[in-house]
């Protein structure tokens, strides 16, 4: 994947005390290939590489104490810029209700995302109304009604015999009459962009004058998603993009190209089929995730929302100071289990993404059980000071946990790697905030 390729490039650079212009060029050639392979738009890649090069061959970088790290930081910042820089927030009308129109091709995830968004707004103490504007796809209305019931958000529908434009008009009026502060209008998609669809969307647009026109695109479709975005944007003036199916095996191309190609920011990322699998999109966090630096902030936020805040803070401190032990590891596994799909969470922890990629150490629930058994077979002293775990101790741990010496060795090695990554991360972030120690 993109992350492992970039990590390879950077681990080469990081090893060097001095970086020559040739080293930078070589690294940039590899970054370029990695991005193209991840299905990032060709022109976007070209501009990106030019920008990074310009900054990376400067004298300060070459003469810096840790040139490799400085270059990674430059790439990180440019990736963040590429995706819009800072978080693009959902618009809020000062004359409620705020009207949100969901548009996109069939199967992109409009209806699902409409439900997720309603749930998110409801959690923020808003009173959203969902409007069933897809009268063409069989069962589309029912799908929205089921979602609405599940999250206890009202759904406005006039069946499938009234025109979508009229449904949208009356839906908006209904929201005004009932004090809903957000109206989320689900619309129909087609398999391909067609003029009839665009015409109808334009009419709805004219009638409800939305504050947000959110294009929902399937991230799995890579550059196609970007082309779709470009086309919709030319016809409808989008206000934001929602990238869906980021939980799947996407290559990252859509996330990295959409903003640069269309000028339209990504506002949300959908990471699963479940109703709460929607997150505000943070370019900086996505960049860190792509670079394999994990996504600690999202993880910590998630933890704070779902589990013991005190513990989460303590964990963050330990990670920053690289004081993380096997005891913390165990405790974190316990907490993590409460948070849901392991796969997604693992990607957020520095180093864990890499661990997951290791073929014979797939991080599924069963595998987690084996890892847990290994850690539980360590003595307290061993958990607190992993460096004392010598060959004999490893043999004992393997026997005690019913695993093999090879498995124990692997876990300890990966744990070491993880700690190293955390150290790097904490030096990147510094105690007072981002990058304070680096320059
Ligand atoms: P629409 O035609 O644009 O309204 O798309 P739907 O909302 O009906 O979604 C199409 C399919 O994609 C459904 O099976 C959804 O469960 C699925 N889906 C939507 N968002 C996501 C996501 O973020 N991840 C995954 N894995 N599936 C998703
Ligand atoms: Mg739909």
TrEMBL record:
EC number of the protein: 3.6.5.4
One Pfam assignment: SRP54_N
Domain Signal recognition particle SRP54 helical bundle span(s) in chain numbering: 1-83
Location of the protein in the cell: Cytoplasm
Coiled coil feature spans: 293-332
Domain SRP54-type proteins GTP-binding: 97-292
Residues engaged in binding GTP: 104-111, 186-190, 244-247
Catalytic activity as recorded in UniProt: GTP + H2O = GDP + phosphate + H(+)
Stretches assigned to the AAA+ ATPase domain: 96-243
The entry's keywords: Coiled coil, Cytoplasm, GTP-binding, Hydrolase, Nucleotide-binding, Ribonucleoprotein, RNA-binding, Signal recognition particle
Keyword Endoplasmic reticulum appears in the UniProt entry: no
SMART domains per UniProt: AAA (SM00382), SRP54 (SM00962), SRP54_N (SM00963)
Domain of life: Bacteria
Quaternary structure annotation from Swiss-Prot or TrEMBL: Part of the signal recognition particle protein translocation system, which is composed of SRP and FtsY.
Recorded family membership: Belongs to the GTP-binding SRP family. SRP54 subfamily.
Domain notes for this protein: Composed of three domains: the N-terminal N domain, which is responsible for interactions with the ribosome, the central G domain, which binds GTP, and the C-terminal M domain, which binds the RNA and the signal sequence of the RNC.
Described function: Involved in targeting and insertion of nascent membrane proteins into the cytoplasmic membrane. Binds to the hydrophobic signal sequence of the ribosome-nascent chain (RNC) as it emerges from the ribosomes. The SRP-RNC complex is then targeted to the cytoplasmic membrane where it interacts with the SRP receptor FtsY.
HAMAP family named among the record's database cross-references: SRP54
NCBIfam families for this protein: ffh (TIGR00959)
PANTHER family: SIGNAL RECOGNITION PARTICLE 54K PROTEIN SRP54, SIGNAL RECOGNITION PARTICLE SUBUNIT SRP54
Protein name (record): Signal recognition particle protein
